[in-house]
Amino acid sequence: MNQIALPKNMTKDEEVYLALESLFETYGYRKFKMRKFETYALYEEFKSFLVSEYILTFSSPEGKLMALRPDVTLSIVKNTRADETHSDKVFYRENVYRMDRHTKEYREIPQAGVEMIGKVDTAATLEIIRMAKQSLELIDPVSILCLSHMGFVEGILEACQASAHERTQILHCLRTQNVHDLYAIVGDREPRQGWFADLAEALTSRGSYAETLAISRKIAVNSRMNEALDELAYIGDALSELGMAQGIRLDFTMQSDLNYYNGILLQGYVEKYPGVVLTGGRYDRLLTKFQKNLSALGFALALGDLNSCYPNPPEFDADVLLLYSSEISPVLVLQTADALRKEGKRVRLAENAPKGFAAKEIIDLRKEVSSC
Amino acid sequence: MLAAIGYECPEILEDNRKLIFENTENGVRYFLVKPSDVAIYVEKGAADIGVVGKDILLEQNPDLYELLDLGFGKCRMCVAAPVGYREDYDRPIKVATKFVHIAKQYYEGRNREIEIIKLSGSIEIAPIVGLSDVIVDIVETGTTLRENHLEVYEEIVPISARLIANKASSKFKSEEITKIASKLKEGIL
Questions:
Q1: Taking the model in full, what pTM does it have?
Q2: What is the 3 state secondary structure string of chain A?
């Protein structure tokens, strides 16, 4: 069988996606394909799970309300083959349709990711963390993967004796590293003297995984926090043993919806992308809402803005621009082009040089034939 | 404040119309942008850090870190109404404001139905001419309210200038950003 040649001028997102697909395949993950739309009822039921509450809808010919997919995980969870003894490991590359927060316009966003559903043990967790870090490195060797734990975040809420209304405010303060406003909300309920100062240190720590873990131990005042830190400590030791500790940090400012997520959370950054490029975590609680007694862990990469952050414009549109005229034998034109292609060159045929076209070399058959 | 901690940029003090000022010696570049645009510049990574009012952060809810309350530019986000205003609980309140999100959040928290009238400026006129019942706006000294026969009806939240940082920059330029935040904090305390 002939080998399929890859295009020479690939954009960053195309390049990354091909590399990600190979990576995910080496871990034995199967590709999950799905339709661009689902029934609206699925998203209506799990609206708070979605990044944006605005969903593009349309009516099917039968009058059923459909939606252009705003999220991939829900479709995978709904259709998973996993059960209590057989896990499901899938990867995907799909577009999702979401409203842009700034422009208030809908955008088609390419996304790639993996989901592991079934029994998520420590080996599976380490595997996902490793895949997440490797995925980031495929985008940019300068990358950082941050880990957090929902149990630790819930432990902070418990320690602050937060009311339902305060919980939202506290979570916002944690997410924005805003300890000054957090103190204004629950400063009167400090679990012990100096606890908020230690919390500020833990939230703003820029140190290594081990250093942040040690700082966080100082604020652990309940079993939830201690159990979460024990799990993170075990993962940290395993990552060191596997030689993977480089570029992995703890960051307790990250969080997800308490209704769906539990356990480990992931967030990834690459040097030239101004936001979070990778998000993920453990979401057993979502599975419970689907009446499935299973665990799940996964991550998604937002590939939408990679091309503007990592521009890769081709220097030339083709290697050779081959100019011809109707007076020249078409067979000769095609034979000349074929001979050049056999040398591995990209050849564009044209009667006149196209506007704005950049070629490494121009061969003008019109001159060559007329001079014969 | 930034000059006092070693990030001076004398070019800023010159009389010109420049919007970007650079001091290559201390590796800093300043952008002068509208207050409402500061958070966008930082969230999108065009600037690593910024100084912005809490009102903008509450209104736009950008995805970034709020590192420090800088303690200046102090004022209050308030509901103001004509002197002697009495709330009619039988109908939604008509609220004129520039701060749509803050107003909605505040009244949602009180489980109160409202009708928002979005304005861009001179908000104080709205209740006087019957366009709205109340306004949600920033109050500094209260002089503008008094001169327009309005008064603070309820205080929503205190406002001041905040130091903000891009989340990705905080990871890759953590040392520099932490240094700036710590020095500014020392200056405030």
A1: 0.85
A2: CCCCCCCCCCCHHHHHHHHHHHHHHHCCCEECCCCCEEEHHHHHHCHHHCCCCCCCEEECCCCCEEEECCCCHHHHHHHCCCCCCCCEEEEEEEEEEEECCCCCCEEEEEEEEEEEEECCCHHHHHHHHHHHHHHHHHHCCCEEEEEEEHHHHHHHHHHCCCCHHHHHHHHHHHHCCCHHHHHHHHHHHCCCCCHHHHHHHHHHCCCCHHHHHHHHHCCCCCHHHHHHHHHHHHHHHHHHHCCCCCCEEECCCCCCCCCCCCCEEEEEEECCCCCCCEEEEECHHHHHHCCCCCEEEEEEEECCCHHHHCCCCCCCCEEEEEECCCCCCHHHHHHHHHHHHHCCCCEEEECCCCCCCCEEEEEEHHHHHHHC
